[in-house]
Specification:
Length: about 450
């Protein structure tokens, strides 16, 4: 059979990973597909820099000529960003080329339109590498767990945030200190907003939830909260209570609708996710038949991400000669079975909570706080009261004391009411901190 020709959009870190894997493992890949797969052209910004890599690939700065080249069968996008990637992928689909991308933001926001257009043209859109780097989580959700009704999934899906929280927990460092190191090491961008405020994780959660529940990609429905307000004290107090703080993406099916949320979370320290450290990623998926399954690995990097892109190339090559209706559906469900599901607002979520108060060290404070929670029917499962901080004086002689509460499972709207009432007390001198708790 004639070789399959690949056109690469971008020859940076990820693009080089794709090229290196296809070249190094060419024989093994041919054994799997029955065909040679060759990167014939790459579109780049700096032609001289790309040619210096000596990969034996024809390079060009004209990306439009690449995606319209009649000799290219599959376009592999490793550029990142919204534009020109979106325009180029649309042009590739218009020219009846299969497209593969690692661009999680593009798929989360524009994926519905791209998938619809590709189906009309009889070509494929594949995006395994857009979530969790080298972990084959999309394939697991779409195919390996196809017999299951997925009940929930929860994952550490941003390596930068996990590195920061791991360093804070292991070495007692501050958020600002570890973030500066993450930027120096190249784990975090100069503007780290997408990573530390949860936007990157929200893109990935959007994609996983769509494949898990058979719903359209719904990025605007994801509640997103970052880790920039997590203090060293909260990390230490959580550990005293037997928990670890991780930044999780959670998608949960409930009778009322779907929860889609990204936020810092206390996890019992004995759970496997609590022990995923550094820049690694991990996802737990709970199916009704199989129960919980865990997927762990490198969430980024040249060859881990390139591995997922090449896996998508192999899948597309295997199905190129098949009738489009006989290919695995892009989102795992037949197109006419993809249906919108109600997405719950944050006030309707149900979770347990860690609450930290900084209160004046005087009699009656704990009783007043407990009374507020009791009036709203919120159970308090544990209380941790630290020694007064005599150095932190308010007025002339009043020290303050941190008080930590763990609640039972409660609707989030009730917690909002309780915190508002507690915050209004004259004895509470700092903003109340709250972090959700998941036992998984």
């Amino acid at each position: 059979m004639k070789p399959v020709n690949i056109g690469l959009l971008g020859l940076g870190t990820v693009g080089q990973g794709v090229a290196n894997i296809l070249i190094r493992n060419a024989d093994e890949i041919k054994r799997r597909t029955g065909r040679d797969i060759i990167v014939t052209r790459a579109a780049v910004r700096n032609q001289g820099k790309a040619e210096a890599l000596e990969l034996g690939i024809d390079v060009t700065t004209d990306s439009q000529s690449l995606v319209t080249d009649p000799n290219i069968d599959i376009i592999c996008e490793a550029m990142g960003g919204d534009e020109p990637a979106l325009t180029l992928l649309n042009l590739a689909i218009d020219n009846k080329k299969h497209v593969i991308t690692a661009n999680k933001a593009l798929i989360a926001v524009h994926g519905n339109d791209l998938i619809d257009k590709a189906r009309e043209q009889g070509v494929s859109v594949a995006f395994e590498s857009s979530v969790a780097g080298g972990i084959p989580i999309i394939k697991a959700l779409r195919e390996g767990l196809a017999a299951n009704r997925i009940e929930w999934l929860a994952g550490i899906i941003n390596g930068t945030g996990n590195f920061i929280l791991s360093e804070m927990a292991e070495k007692g460092r501050s958020f600002e200190d570890v973030l500066a190191e993450a930027q120096a090491l190249g784990y975090a961008e100069a503007d780290p907003t997408f990573d530390v405020e949860g936007i990157d994780a929200a893109h990935k959660l959007t994609i996983m939830a769509s494949v898990a529940f058979g719903m359209p990609l719904s990025f605007n429905g994801v509640y997103t909260e970052g880790i920039s307000k997590i203090s060293r004290e909260d990390v230490e107090f959580a550990a005293e209570l037997g928990y670890c703080i991780k930044h999780l993406g959670v998608a949960r099916r409930r009778d009322e609708g779907i929860e889609l949320r990204v936020h810092p979370t206390l996890i019992p320290e004995k759970r496997l996710l609590a022990n995923v450290n550094g820049v690694m990623n991990a996802i737990v998926v709970h199916g009704d038949a199989v129960g919980p399954t865990l997927y762990y690995g490198a969430g980024a990097g040249s060859e881990p991400t390139g591995s997922s892109l090449v896996a998508d190339i192999i899948d597309v090559v295997r199905g190129m000669d098949a009738d489009p209706m006989h290919r695995v559906p892009t989102l795992g469900f037949q197109p006419d079975a993809i249906a919108p599901l109600p997405i719950l607002k944050a006030a309707d979520y149900r979770a347990a909570f860690y609450i930290r108060l900084q209160a004046l060290d005087q009699p009656g404070v704990m009783a007043t706080v407990s009374g507020i929670f009791g009036e709203l029917g919120i159970s308090i499962e544990a209380i941790l009261q630290k020694e007064p901080d005599a150095a932190a004086l308010v007025g002339s002689d009043k020290a303050t004391v941190p008080i930590i509460l763990l609640t039972g499972l409660v609707q989030e709207g009730l917690i909002d009411q309780a915190i508002a009432k507690v915050q209004a007390l004259d004895t509470i001198i700092e903003p109340v901190t709250r972090i959700r708790v998941e036992t998984l």
